[in-house]
Amino acid sequence: MIKVMFVCHGNICRSPMAEFVMKKLAAESGLEEIFIASCATSTEELGNPVYPPARAELAKHGIGCSGKTAVQLKKSDYGSYDLFVGMDTANIRNMHRIFGTDPDEKICKLMTFSGRSDDVSDPWYTRDFARCYADIEEGCRGLLRSLRERM
Predict the structure, then answer these.
(1) Residues 75 and 101: beta-carbon distance below 8 Å
(2) Number of H helices, E strands in the chain
(3) In what order do the strands lie in the sheet with 107-109?
(4) Residue 142 CA to its chain's centroid (Å)
(5) Structural domain that includes position 60
(6) Is 97 considered catalytic here?
């Protein structure tokens, strides 16, 4: 089993969107050997549900996320997951701060799986949840291809 943790700042927009998009893509492709979760690098939104516009964007694509609440990344998570997939450069920096080191090179940025070096569009600032979803879906499709090669 491969364990993937998606990470963003608050765990109410991008990382839970990635979690549930990836769960859908994995199920559709018949890959049941992947455990998928998401978390925050900050404490600001802990316990809060997925942000309503993010939830609405997922629903437009037939994806539900009920019951998901924001949780924080912990140093002890490093040994429990195979990949930590950040949505932007700040998330990558914060994961390195939380873990202190990345000896197994588990930390990566989502868009690299689609051959891009940019960040996932942040709808908290842009209000463009459709663009964010498109970035996430593109990155998750690339990640799924990468995971298939590992299996």
Answers:
(1) no
(2) 5, 4
(3) 34-40, 2-8, 83-86, 107-109
(4) 13
(5) 2-150
(6) no
Catalytic residue among 8, 65, 132, 140: 8
Give yes or no: 8 in active site: yes
Cβ atoms of 54 and 17 within 8 Å: the answer is yes
Domains of the chain: total = 1
In tens, the pLDDT along 83-100 reads: 999 999 999 999 999 999
Identify the CA nearest to 72 among candidates 10, 132, 120, 125: 10
Task: Note the pTM of the prediction, 2 decimals.
Answer: 0.97
Active-site residue (options: 13, 14, 55, 65): 14
Give me the CATH number covering residue 104. 3.40.50.2300
Q: Which of 77, 119, 122, 135 does the annotation list as catalytic?
A: 122
Active site includes 116? Answer: no
55-86: pLDDT as tens digits: 999 999 999 999 999 999 999 999 999 999 99
